[in-house]
Fold each of these.
Amino acid sequence: MLDLKFIRENVDLVKKALADRNLKIDLDGFVRIIDQRKKVLLELEELRAQKNKANDEISALLKEKKDAQAKIASMKAIAQNIDDLEAQLKELDPQIDKIILTIPNIPHESLPIGDASQNKVVRSWGECKKLDFKPLTHIELAQNLDIVDFNRATKITGSNWILYKGWGAKLERALINFMLDLHTRKHGYTEIFPPFLVNRASMTGTGQLPKLEEDMYRLKDDDLFLIPTAEVPVTNIFRDEVLKDEDLPVYYAAYTACFRREAGSYGKDTKGLIRVHQFDKVEMVKFVRPETSYDELEKLVHDAEEVLQLLGLSYRVLMLATQDLSFSAAKCYDLEAYAPGIDKWLEVSSCSNFGSFQARRANIKYRGKDKKLDFVHTLNGSGIALARTFVAILENYQQKDGSIIIPEALRPYLDGKERIPGP
């Protein structure tokens, strides 16, 4: 979240950020509540000082066996005023807490302003594959090869859930292990295997709540949520903790299943593996010093890009415009892989810098070399997400006979096999 003092001193900047995101929040009304709270606090401090002084004076009068009734009456009046002001604070604080959690991060000045149509392609890698035959879609390929059973997944759970089988399950597992090995062995990340359920405080700390609660799966009898991404449990590892300067930066990589209701997106990309309620993902999370966070973002993007390069998948990197930016992010790059069967670019990774926004919500600080406390900057990125990467591999590596060539980087994880046999 944003700092109250920052908001009060930068009202025009925050208003511009809201306008750039196309959001309407009564910021002037919020500032009035902030000012009212500040006024009440100042009055409280003054009255508490008066009460302490009166207490000392009453004690002195009683010690000298003098009449203290007037002072006692005066102190009672002060105490009543203190009670009244504390009651006002109890009304103001929840209002501030509720509103502050709805105000998004400030977009970085380098971002294009506007909706998704303004997203900027900053670079691309590889050539979009041109097949010398009419390519099949991943749905046709998966059904022909019997590696994804869409119908039985629907029977077991419902629409837009996945049942991998045989080579499909092996390929999924190979992708996960390949990515974890790459990030931990080459890129310097420590592997984490976190819980797949988190509490409300964790979801609030990373910014999914309260804004996105309708998109989350929540347990009926416990206030716990199935994670939408490993970002949530991994970032919250250090919630309410103080890190040492010499321990920064911290790099974590985690595989988890991810669960999203996708509320409000019914009818959009609902066939096959493009938009599903459960998917696998390897996530990269960083805790860094503020002055290095944007350099760390660029390195994070390159770590995700290397996955796609080693898999031989053509992709492009987009800098997201202000209205396409997530609630908590200050800057975000999306990586999109090309899938020739459906002739679409598929988002397979989002890499974001949140600045101190998440750290302030989750109370994650570090003690610098000057011994002062400050909030860390947090970053995360998909490194990378399935099932869309699974789609891109099937569609890019399909052969005329219906078989699938296995990318070289994955062959050590699949007993050295070079292809998934055709039907």
Amino acid sequence: MTAITPDTTPTLNPLFRMQWEEAQQSHVLLYPEGMVKLNDSAAAILQYCDGRHTVEQMCAELEQRFKVTDITDDVVQFLEHAFERGWLQV
């Protein structure tokens, strides 16, 4: 399991590609074996997993973008899930 810290800079695994899928009316992760339909929160978080944003930066930007507070625990929980599934790498 990857330890998520405020300085972790996740990036999408090159085997996955995120895109808007018109037929699904949602963002999806495409990979050789299939597709994962993402909810709006997951898509918003993954958009910041570009290798340039730390977890701390992405949480701050998401809080400002959605006008919410205290989302760090939820973001870290999702990132742990994404790392376990192989969607992300450091």
Amino acid sequence: MRLEPELWEALTEICEREGQDMSALVRQVESAGHAGGRTSAVRVFIINYYRAAATEIGHAGASHGPLARARFAEMARPAA
């Protein structure tokens, strides 16, 4: 599996946070059934993991701009 160094670092951090072996975590991600293959599934998993953990306070602390209220409400709705 080919990932950029930053994604390997992120995946390693996720494994540490979740107390999982990397191969077990990747198998778990693969079993979720992402249509794009293993590498794509892992990339999507990493971004979704961090998006789920992101907060407006965290973004403000990183000097990111705020998310428009309408977009925030749209993201909070469950997918159909």
Amino acid sequence: MVECNIDARGKAARLLGGVSAILAASIFAILLATNSISIDFGWYAIAGAYFGGAFAIFEARAGWCVVRAMGIKTPL
């Protein structure tokens, strides 16, 4: 079902992007929880960033890219 379709550079890029997204979402969550910033849809953005980061880490671990699986060529 999930077949490896990216190389080591693609895996590294997805892992770095996923970890960065989760780190940024954590910082944003702390700022939002302490009322340092106030945004109406902030928790939805945090949830989206966590999900996106976790999915990118899954892609890196599996060696699979959903965009490539759909037939779109990516540079990495």
